Amino acid sequence: MTSQRQSPVYRSRLLQPASERQPDTHPLTWRLRDDGQVVDLKDYESKEGYCAVSQVLSAHDPQSVIAVMKEANVRGRGGAGFSAGLKWSLTMQGGDMPRGYIVCNADEMEPGTFKDRLLMEQQPHLLIEGMILAAFANNARYGYIFLRGEYVESARVLTQALAEARNAGWLGPDIAGSGFDFDIAVHTGAGRYICGEETALLNSLEGHRANPRAKPPFPGQSGAWGKPTVVNNVETLCNVPAVMLLGADWYQGLSGGRTKDGGTKLYGASGLVNRPGLWELPIGTTGQEILDRAEGLRDGRKLKAWLPGGASTGFLLPEHLELPLDFDTVGKEGSRLGTGLITVVTEDQSLVSLMRNLEEFFARESCGWCTPCRDGLPWTVKLLLGLERGEGEAGDVELLDKLAADCGPGLTFCAHAPGAAMPLQTALRHFRHEFEQGVHYPKGKAHADPIPVGQV
């Protein structure tokens, strides 16, 4: 039997050869090996590894690091797109403040997403260096990599890399002779999607049930064990070393004028494409270019719709493929960039079946903390199952509209239910006829009577 480590099925695939990746254009992936093996400490150090740490700890102060990050406008690559520099500037710090924590959100459970796994399993020292710089900027004394429990290979690689960095003096007391102390531990979760929400992650890290916390206070004021805490995504932290070495203007220029956002993005494609995988491309690259790199759809299929960044984003149509995939542009079209890994839906695939599958996932992964999510998502699954079987009742499609609206932003305790509602709302908007075809009308009844909202 082939082991998990050996099987290519279990590896995230970067589909750009080393000849196409340069330090000044591909900051996330230029060091990666074409054979997919781990970039160890020796290899990493030979390619400017930990140069940013040496430079920053010897010649910068925390506020100057935060200023560069804000100027570069490094936006969170976990899906929200919030400015990392702004987030760091809101962390409580100062001489009288206790030193806090840096937490890397590596709980990559978004369906259709596998970008962080590539970085952790093939280039772990880039993440470690990014966490050291983030810790210095945020007065943190310790870091945690909160890792999806199923990522067994990632845990092995990261643990080994942490030991290498510790033995070389890049972690622990007095890093690079700077007087700055910092260390990191890997914490494997129990495999719950809700831990992607940063406060649920912190509860789980502390050993509690993974429920979201009320905000305020925000983690930057009171996070892990009541200390100031910054939670950033893997890809976000991996951007930090190059930004500190090459500067904010360089980072902003990487998009090539495609968008006002800066940097590159790990984009990907999955579903019925000929060449699923990952590419590091300028942020603002179009969906069409990503599909072209994936060599189109299998067996000459036609595209019906696509998710731009994981299962919790809204469906876009073929005519949206020419839009730049950045946070604001995609948002204006009623979706979200999310993780930037697109999933295609072909003309021969049922949106009703696809939504039933997605909503089953979201319903199962709900922590049950608030009513719209705990009760609304299973109800949504029940309605979708009926429509999928052609056994839907009059008013079911309208009721799906109402349930999706009840799970919208601001109506639930965290973003889990709004994330579940967005693909459903956009599927109903663009492909309502597919859902209506699943309604079984009594003889002589050709359509469903609308249900007044007050009677739902």
TrEMBL record:
Molecular function in Gene Ontology: 4 iron, 4 sulfur cluster binding; FMN binding; metal ion binding; NAD binding; NADH dehydrogenase (ubiquinone) activity; quinone binding
Entry keyword Cell membrane: no
Domain NADH-ubiquinone oxidoreductase 51kDa subunit iron-sulphur binding: 352-397
Requisite cofactors: FMN; [4Fe-4S] cluster
Entry's EC annotation: 7.1.1.-
Region (Disordered): 1-28
InterPro entries listed in its UniProt record: NADH-UbQ_OxRdtase_51kDa_CS, NADH-UbQ_OxRdtase_suF, Nuo51_FMN-bd, Nuo51_FMN-bd_sf, Nuop51_4Fe4S-bd, Nuop51_4Fe4S-bd_sf
Pfam hit, one: Complex1_51K
Highest taxon in the source lineage: Bacteria
Gene3D superfamilies the record matches: 3.10.20.600, NADH-ubiquinone oxidoreductase 51kDa subunit, NADH-ubiquinone oxidoreductase 51kDa subunit, iron-sulphur binding domain
Catalysed reaction equations from the record: a quinone + NADH + 5 H(+)(in) = a quinol + NAD(+) + 4 H(+)(out)
UniProt keyword annotations, A-Z: 4Fe-4S, Flavoprotein, FMN, Iron, Iron-sulfur, Metal-binding, NAD, Quinone, Translocase
Membership in a protein family: Belongs to the complex I 51 kDa subunit family.
Record's function text: NDH-1 shuttles electrons from NADH, via FMN and iron-sulfur (Fe-S) centers, to quinones in the respiratory chain.
Protein name per UniProt: NADH-quinone oxidoreductase subunit F
